[in-house]
Amino acid sequence: MNSVAQDIKDRINIVDLIGEYIRTQKAGANWKALCPFHHEKSPSLMINEEKQIWHCFGCGKGGDVFGFLMEIEGIDFKEALKILAEKTGVELLRFNKNQPEFVDDKKKTLEILELAVKFYEKQLWDGMGKDKILDYLRERGLNDQAIRDFRLGYAPNGWDNLLKFLMGRGYSTNDIAKTGLLVAKNEARGNGFYDRFRDRITFPVMDVMGKAVGFSARVAPGGDESQAKYVNTPETSVYHKSKILYGLNMAKQEIKSQNSAIIVEGNMDVIASHQAGIKNTIAVSGTALTPEQVDILKRYASKIKMLFDMDSAGEKATQRSAEICFQKDINVSVITLPEGKDAAELVQKDPKKFIEASEKATPIMEYFFQQFFRKYDGNKIEDKKIIAAELLNIIRNFGNAIEKNYWIRKLSQKLDVSENVLVDILKKTETRDVRQPEENLKKEKVSKKRIEVLLEKIAGLMLNSKILWEKISNNTQEKYYFSENKKFLPIFEKGREVGYKFENLISSLENKEECDFLQKVYFDTKYSNTENGPMENDLSDSEEQVEYCFNELKKEIGKDRLGVLLNDIRKAEENGDKEGKNLLIDEFNKLSQEIK
Length: 596
Ligand SMILES: [Zn+2]
Description:
The chain has 596 residues and is α+β, with helices and mostly antiparallel strands. The chain has 6 domains: 3-102, DNA Primase, Chain A (Alpha-Beta Complex); 104-239, DNA primase, catalytic core, N-terminal domain (DNA primase DNAg catalytic core, N-terminal domain); 242-360, Dna Topoisomerase Vi A Subunit, Chain: A, domain 2 (3-Layer(aba) Sandwich); 376-437; 448-539, no CATH class; 549-594. The protein contains 29 helices and 19 strands. The structure holds zinc ion. The site of zinc ion (ZN) has 8 residues, from loops.
C-alpha cells in the first residue's frame, strides 16, 4: 500500500471514523452497527478495532477506513485519500506529484463554494449587510454565535459582485458556473453570466462533513419582495438535493446520542432550535423526505419526529414523508405545537414547551387516524369508504407485515368493517414489493456450489492462521484445487510477501473486488452473526476442519467427474466404441470406490 495511505491509517481510528456516520455499539472486543449499505433490522456490520477493518455479514461489504469512506460517500480512492489526509494532517505532496489529475473538477468546485461562503460572510459582518441584514437576523432572535456557526452571509445587490471577486482569485467563469452560483445571460443579450443571488441572505448548505455544497438564499428585508422568497442553487456535481439534509453536519452527534432526529420545515427553524440547545434538528431541502435522506438518517437514529406546517401543503409533505419512512421501516411521529405557535418562535421564547411537545410526539399512524376520523364521519357509509381508501393508501406502504396487519385490524375495528374486506381492497390496488433486492441476495447465496463453499471455508481458515496458510500454499496438490478460481490467487501469490498476515494482504491489494471477496471469506470464518451481533468463532480445531474440507472437496470433485464419465460412457456406446467404453467404466468404478 501507498505509504501516504499507511500514514493516514496510523493516525485514525476506524471506530471513530465510522462513528461519524452511523450509530455504533460495543460488542465484546468489537463494535457492531446497523449496516448503512443494505436494509436490515439487527446489526450485522462489525468493526474490528484491533485490525482496523470493518465487515458486513449481511451484504458482504467491508474494508478499511478508505473502503468505508468510498462506499458511504460514493467517492473513489483518491478522493477518500484526500479527505482523510486533510483530517489527519498527512501531507499529500508526494502523492500529488505522481498524480496530477488529482486536482479535479469536484475539488475545484468545492474550493470555489468555500470562497463564496467566506465572501458572503464578510459582506454580512463587515460589508454592505452589516447594518440592515445583521440587525434583521438579530431581530428575528438569532444570536451572533448561531449566525457564525451556520455561516450565514449576505449577497449584496448588483449583478457581478461574487463573479468579480472569484475571477479576481483566478477562477474562470466556467469553473465558477459549475457551483450553480451564476446564471447564464439570455443569449439575445450576449453570452456570459451574472450572480444568482442579489440582495439576499445566504444560507450555505453543507454536506455531512461540513463542506459547503450549495446555497439557499432568502430575499433581504425590504428587498424586492416580488421575487421568490427563497432561491436555491441548482443541482451540481457536488450538490444532490435528494441526499442533503440542512444542518445534519451540526446535528449528527446529537441525533446519534438521542437516537432521534427532529425534522422542521425551514433553515431558520433549524438555526433557532440549535441556538436553543435542541441540537438534533434538521430540515429537508425539498418539500418531503426522500428515500435517500431516510437512508442517511437511519445511519444515525431509529426515530424521526416531523414538524411541518399543517397547511394543506404541509399535510401532503407529512404524508409523503411518512410513506417513505414506512417503506424504510423507521419509526416516525408528528410533533404538534400548541395552537397558533410556529416552531422558530416557540423554540426561542419557550424552548421547554418545544421539548415537551417533541416528547409528546404522536406516532404518525395514530396521527393519520385522528386526522381522517376528524375530517369524515366514521358512522356514515359514504365517509367510511373515503376513510378506508385514504388510510389503506397509507397503510399499504408498510415494509413490515406485522405493522401492516396491526393497522388493518385497527381500521377494521374503527370502521366496523371486516378485515378481509379491507385486505381485498388493499390487494386490488397493491403495487409490487419494494424490497426485492434482498430476496435476490438470498437466492444467490443458496445457489452457490458446494465446491465453492468448501474452497471458501478452507481459504478462510488459512487467512486466520499463519501456520495453515503457509503450509497449504506450499502444498502443490492442495494449492491445485484453488487454481480454477482467480479470486483466491492473492492468498497463494502474496502469502510469503505479506508474512501470511491477513491485514497486510488486504493493505497490499489494489483491486476492490478482490479485497471485498477475501475479507468476506476471512470474516465469515472468524465470526458468526448471531442475534446479539457478531461473535468470535472457536478456531482451535482449524487443522481438523481443513482436513475435513479437503476430504469433502475430493468427494465433490469426484462426483462432478463421475457425471462427466457417465456422459462419456453413453457417447462411446452410441459410437459403438467398445474398447473406449470399457476403459471409461473401469475408471468410473475405481473413482466410485475412492469417494465412497
Ligand atoms: Zn450490509
